[in-house]
Amino acid sequence: MMTPVNLQQEAQASCSHEESEQAQLLVHFRKSVAADLRELAWLQNNEVTAEVLTELKSVQFPDNLGLRLQTPEGKEACQLVRKAIGDLPKEADEAVLDDLAADFTAIYLSNGYHISPYESVWLTDEGLVRQAPMVQVREWYKRHDLLAKDWQKQADDYIALEVEFVAHLLERDDEEETLIKVAQFLDEHPLRWIREFSMRVSTRCSTPFYAGLVLLTMHYLEELRTLLEAILQTARPSEEEIEKRMRLLSKPVGVTCAPIAELVEDKAIEFVQKT
User: Which pTM does this prediction carry?
Assistant: First the structure.
């Protein structure tokens, strides 16, 4: 005699197994993308040394990234970085390091190419740093008990800090609501200006390495946002919808910029230090 089968229990068990596998994949996705973003943020917040270049070659950057870019533009950016690193001498000499250091300084520190790495410059009519967009970004950090470590030297809406913050959100927990926040932050902040920033840097900077790095970062964030749209099964808002939303959120700087004493000072955003 055949043993009776409880189809409902079997179906529930099957669904439970599938949900468990999906949950594990999502955890792996979060961790991998967070690690990628920390690496991209670090490279845009620190001058590369001979040791760092050796490490990048050793791990075969950018092929070591957990998220493989799929768009033609993303693949092209990866190839640009790959070739830039591959073309460097086995042991970077002083001239190579000086060129990279000069490019880093011009892009991220001295405004040498007249291309700001700060969101406020791109999203305000005045084109000034530390304006309303920076305040909005600071409020995001504050809501998650974070403070930009060197906020007096480096405004909260610095590109590397925004990328690092996305990594922090992805590592925060396993809740779907957090992924919704990641998508929202990307929509409201870095993705509103990083394309123009990266395109200009790539055409004005002196080294293929930094030309590729900024393009790689931009396409990575774009493809991450596309993946989140699929994961969350929620349509990505249009640029017009986002701009309308941000106009409603905009307030004078003095209204929302909390005194530093009110922020959580013991949880500064940190960058991964390479050894």
Answer: 0.86
Domain annotation covers residue 260 = yes
190 and 119 in contact (C-beta within 8 Å)? yes
At residue 8, the pLDDT reads: 45
Name residue, tokens 């957090």: 178
Per-residue pLDDT, 251: 56
CATH number of the CATH domain containing 225 = 1.10.3480.10
| Domain count along the chain | 1
Assigned domain for 5 exists: no
CB 65 within 8 A of CB 221: no
Residues 6 or more apart in contact with residue 185 via CB below 8 angstroms: 140, 162, 165, 166, 169
Mean pLDDT throughout 228-241? 96
Residue 275 lies in a domain: no
List, for residues 150-170, the tens digit of each pLDDT value: 888 899 999 999 999 999 999
Range of the domain at 106: 10-269
71-104 burial, b at 16+ Cβ within 10 Å, e below that, comes to eeebeebbebbbebbeebeeebeeebbeebebbb
